[in-house]
Design goal:
Elements lengths: L2 H8 E7 L1 H4 L9 E6 L15 E3 L5 E5 H9 L3 H7 L4 E4 L1 H8 L1 H4 L3 H24 L4 H20 L10 H8 L5 H19 L10 H18 L1
Parallel strand pairs: 2-4
Antiparallel strand pairs: 1-2, 1-5, 3-4
């Protein structure tokens, strides 16, 4: 079974991500698709294991095998958690519905570290652009601001929301380069500080519910083996 067949025939969940899911799309925005496929259990009985991720078959499409997806989600990987919370679901199976029902099991205060590390890495790249080119890539600056806002609100409320909400117009102004880098950088600093302040009183648990997720994965693998 080739990699693209796994995506075409065994996808359990797929959604649209990026600017379209965040409410920040323009006419030039791509359609970024993300998905999860369930590799049939017998494929794991061979020496050559099925791939943990696959690009394609469509442009801007990327999918993860279920176990890899769950592992990354338990680590509070920002891209994975946001994929689980996309408002633009394109396809879901009964297994995919159960995966979505586990959204809360993946959420924990680990997000403060994982989102923070990702944000720090992206901020470093923006600073390099400022030094080399006199300004950042404004689209990337906009997306980093949205991520920081999402992290702050997750820690405050225990819910992960992707939509830019009331900050949409100002974020789009950042994308158009209508704010100075100093203004944008100050906004990033404020959001980071607000997330830090929200951590101590966050309703999120310290750790995700790994046992609940593992039970789901084992049952799903067993059911796949029974159908073989």
């Amino acid at each position: 079974m080739d990699d693209l067949t796994l995506v075409r025939d065994h996808t359990i969940y797929s959604c649209v991500m990026g600017s379209r899911a965040f409410g920040l799309a323009t006419e030039a925005s791509d359609t970024d698709r993300r998905g999860v496929y369930l590799a049939p259990t017998p494929l794991f009985w061979r020496f050559e294991k099925p791939p943990t991720h696959v690009e394609g078959p469509r442009d801007e499409e990327f999918s993860w095998e279920l176990e890899r997806f769950c592992d990354l989600a338990l680590r509070a990987n920002p891209n994975i958690l946001e994929c689980l919370h996309s408002p633009l679901v394109e396809r879901t199976s009964p297994v995919g519905e159960e995966l979505l029902s586990l959204r809360g099991a993946f959420l924990s205060r680990r997000a403060h570290v994982s989102f923070g590390r990702y944000a720090a890495s992206q901020h470093g790249k923006l600073l390099a652009d400022v030094r080399l080119h006199g300004g950042p890539r404004w689209k990337h600056a906009m997306h980093l601001l949205r991520l920081l806002r999402s992290c702050r609100d997750l820690l405050r409320t225990g819910r992960l929301t992707l939509d830019a909400g009331a900050d949409r117009d100002r974020l789009l102004a950042v994308r158009r380069g209508e704010l100075t880098w100093e203004e944008v950088d100050a906004w990033m600093t404020r959001l980071t500080e607000e997330a830090e302040a929200a951590l101590a009183g966050s309703p999120l648990p310290a750790e995700p519910d790994r046992a609940r997720v593992e039970d789901f994965l084992v049952r799903t693998r067993r059911a796949s083996a029974d159908r073989a």
